[in-house]
Amino acid sequence: MLILITIAAFFSTLVGGIFALRLRDRLHLILGFSAGAIIAVAFFDLLPEALDLAGGAYSASTILAVTVVGFVAYLALDRMVLLHGHGQHHEGLSAQAGHSYRGIAGAGSLSFHSFLDGVGIGLAFQVSTAVGAVVAAAVLTHDFSDGINTVGMILKNGGERRRAFRWLLVDAMAPVLGVLSTLFFVLPPTQLGLLLALFAGFFLYVGASDLIPESYHAHPKHWTTILTIAGIATLYIIVKLASF
Length: 244
Prior knowledge:
Layout: H1 2-23, H2 28-54, H3 60-81, H4 95-127, H5 129-155, H6 161-181, H7 189-216, H8 221-242
Helix pairs in contact: 1-5, 1-6, 2-3, 2-5, 2-7, 2-8, 3-7, 4-5, 4-6, 4-7, 5-6, 5-8
């Protein structure tokens, strides 16, 4: 099953990028649903599992503090490495070089994040098949949007379509490598619980600060809001069914 999910993660990213090259303006509904799914996985799956696994060694406040660390760490990555201040460029660089730098840095950071997504899937399967399947379902929807964002990051910063497609392939391979890396180590339950709490922070930031704003930017907010709520409800049902 893990092999099939790994293959699906590759193609989810790839298809998202191809859609971005062709039909980017029609993807806001998918992004809205993805945002709800990511947030729901953090609240309904990752955090409860983290509390169960690490609760014997750490207090609930400590475990939730790790979630906050994950949120803040991804915020720092997003603001300082992805360089979302699009109107700025670095001193000593021409405007064109500055745009190119932002495109490459952004696509590279997204690829690293996709690698962490793969690690998250692999670690979730170390908890149980049910937890792994739920996390994988959320990550697959996020990988789709990662493919979109990777292509968009290159194109909107002056890169050509060929370069965008090359970075898309890198991003598509990243979660595969992340999953494979977890085959070479096994974590004790308490450490695994803390890592799940950390990933919950990642997911909360990505959903609330990235996917939700991107989904309703310049689009009708009521439809994207409905799809976000639908994403939350769908993942809640999936988590409940998987727990039986």
